[in-house]
Prior knowledge:
- The complex is a heterodimer.
- Chain A is α+β, with helices and mostly antiparallel strands.
- Chain A has two helices and five strands, in the order E-E-E-H-E-E-H.
- Chain B is an alpha+beta fold.
- Chain B is built from 18 helices and 21 strands.
- In chain B, strands 16, 17, 18, 19, 20 and 21 form a six-stranded mixed β-sheet that branches.
- In chain B, strand 8 and strand 9 form a beta hairpin.
Amino acid sequence: MSKSHTSLAITAARTDDGAPVYWTPEGGWSRALADAQVFADAKVAEGALGQARGQERQVCDPYTMKVSVVDGRPQPLTARERIRCEGPTTRLRRPDPPANPTHPVP
Amino acid sequence: MYQYDQYDQRIVDERAQQFRGQVERRLSGEIAESEFKPLRLQNGLYMQLHAYMLRVAIPYGLLSSKQMRSFAHICRTYDKGYGHFTTRQNLQINWPELQAIPKVLEELAGVEMHAIQTSGNCIRNTTSDQFAGVARDELEDPRPYCEIIRQWSTFHPEFAFLPRKFKIAVTGTPGDDRAAVRLHDIGIRIVEGERGERGFEILVGGGLGRTPMIAKVVRDFLPKRQLLPYLEAIMRVYNEQGRRDNKYKARIKILVDALGVEEFARRVEAEFELIKGEGLELTDSEIARVGAFFAPPPHESLPDSDAQLQALTLGSERTLGLWVRNNVIPHRVPGYCAVTVSLKEKGTPPGDVSDYQMDRLADLADNYSFGQLRATHHQNLVLADVKVADLPALHQELAACGLASANVGKLTDMICCPGLDFCALANARSIPIAEEIMQRFDDVDYLNDLGEISIKMSGCINACGHHHVGNIGILGIDKQGVEFYQLMLGGSHNNDASLGAIVGRAFAQDEIVGAIDTVLRVYLHQRSSPEERFVDTYRRIGMEPFKEALYGAN
């Protein structure tokens, strides 16, 4: 049976494209929450957040988010962070009619 | 439609150029997000949940086929192949990379468009009636006045940093408010004075958001020439006396409510007396000059076609007939009609259009409607000058690109904000609920039986989806990280504008569409006749029967 407990991760929006990114143990950023550094101690997280805020070229507005750690992997706790992490839950663009295949669905 | 002069073109070109430099400095690390944010917002560039979002202004919703093709190209080249028409007659693209934005702005400037003043505490895009200039019940075309307001408010140095954002709407049809003027910071109605002369009724202090209010009349009749001095007087009173200490109490509606409309009007009149005669008055020749840009297109001389229109609705081609009945209105010019293209197709977020569809719509505008389209605040598009004889062919071509839903004004023609799937402010998703509603009630006979009814949905209290004025309103809320939905009943945005009331406790995501079904069943059971609209039934019987059906004894 999997065990879970609540911890913190650091997230921000990437400057180049606004994509959600997560602070890694190496002091960089990853698009995958699975790569995120997980903090059990809020004070340690605050310290890392200070470091993250120093990377103003790469990212915008870093903040801490609560995560549950399930089988060692961080999972978002709120609908907002889940959608940020996994992307919109709706289809982004309707397919063109079959007779007009010039614009494939991205 | 209005054509840029050298000054319009220059300021838009220069702004695109300035923003190129600002983006370069942000990408090089020379400036931080805290410095860049106010600059990007002044160019309509937001940061949303997954990406930047660029909001492009469509002045009073009017756009040419050339501009629509430019949208298609931008969406295809710099985004994910689609755009989203908003409740303020604008277009949003959801996935542009930062380095692409200067190029996008340059392309927009090339077709006389921009994203200036689509964000920030300034005067935003002035909105209007999608049937301006063609509606039979119109007193006068409001678009020349929208354009005059656009020119006055663009880069107005005094009103660049207002207490909060500011929205103006104008209608030329006093009998049928299709521009929702009572829900704007300033609503302007073209009216006739006692001697039949034309002027404006000015309403102030409407708005939705967390404190919804219906606008109040501050001037029964304003002579046309005084439009700009009077607007300037309102803006000055607001700019000076509106609250800046609390953004949630900073809109003009709060000031009007705090002072009382009589005192607010007195202060405006006092300011107006100081401004009058300082050169802002409109001359007849200036009104005529701007009005000439909105002259009717060269319609053919055709016989009256009302009977032909009626015959189409009752003809053997049922799909065509239903579409004509719901999506087409008669035109003031014999032989013509105005067609609303529904952007509420099952399986697609309300207001979304693909680049392919944009190109096809531009072609259809060229072939059937003098090369022009209009965006509506209901997140639909209008081809305003279509020959009645062309309706079967147009319908066929729209159907071929998935744009022939016959649901305008019906339950599934719902307004819906992007919600938590995209928006950084949202508390709950809107689009999946809208899609479920469109799926569940996808029966044209049922929709026609329900008649005129509106659902409006917002993913948060900011009310971009106008939930307060939906006959049925849905508000997404967050309860400890989980999405819930409040149901409201009895709102209306028209001449009989009213704010909806919350029915009771919020519904879970898997309950809300069933709750709407229950509400509709109560309406169908309680209505006095098939002609009694939902909102009229609600006003007659009140909340209790709906509440009882939804919550029972609980």
